[in-house]
Amino acid sequence: IDDLAKVDYSLNSLPAVFQPFIDLDLKGIVYPAGTYSGPPYVAAPFTIPDQSDSMLYLAFSEYFFQTCSFAYYTAGAFNITIAEETCSYFNISTELFGSIIPEVAKYSVTPYPVMLKLMATEIPIVSLEQDSFTVEIQGSMEVFAVLPDSTTHSLFTMNIAANTSIALNIFDQKLMGSLCLNRLQFSLTHSNVGFFEISLLENILSYILQTEVIPSANGK
Residue 219: what pLDDT? Predict the structure, then answer.
């Protein structure tokens, strides 16, 4: 698939040949690149609805998306760094955080750029629904101040719980996906600037993650 993951699409059994159609039962298991250990899931059998108005029907099971999630989690694809030098839209500084959190203002009188490090702490859970599928993500985010000598100082760390919905549609002969962030929750786990109410940060962090992380996922 790419440098991080590979897919095993070999046949599970001999093709079933009938007069009006042929059934191909493919494995559809995604593995982290460089390893071939089995994912921690069990594939459940499923059938494609009996239809005959198209030449080809292609179905993906929940198991396929679960193994995708496992492979990319294992490969570290959900570990993201958002910094000014790596994202042209990112220009958040300690001055902005300090205007919301007095403890940050006391630590950083001089404005410094801010860097965010996001990491998935558990394998994202993928669930198929009627016209879309949802992804549950548990992760953490550490916020750093970038000092003039390019070193960083950790300000605080938070846990993140996110729920997103992805709807797939075919438009102009292309498979298109639209992503909606249903829920985004934060909880403070560690702070080097002193305790503060996490609700002060929720609006700004929701904005940063929705404008920086989600478009990257759509583009990929």
Answer: 39
CA pair distance 200, 205, nearest whole angstrom: 10
The residue written with tokens 């801010």 in the block is: 114
Asked whether the beta carbons of 5 and 31 are under 8 A apart, the reply is yes
Q: Which of 103, 106, 104 is nearest to 145 (CA)?
A: 104
Q: What is the mean pLDDT of the chain?
A: 82
CA atoms within 13 A on the CB side of 54: 7
Question: Could you tell me if 45 and 61 are in contact, meaning their C-beta atoms sit under 8 angstroms apart?
Answer: no
Domains of the chain: 1-75 (no CATH), 78-219 (3.15.20.10)
Q: What is the pLDDT of residue 142?
A: 93
First CA to last CA distance, the chain: 12
How confident is residue 217, by pLDDT bands cut at 50, 70 and 90? Answer: very low
Buried b (16+ CB within 10 A) or exposed e, 114-143: bbbbbebeebbebebeeebbebbbebbbbb
**pLDDT at residue 198, as a whole number:** 80
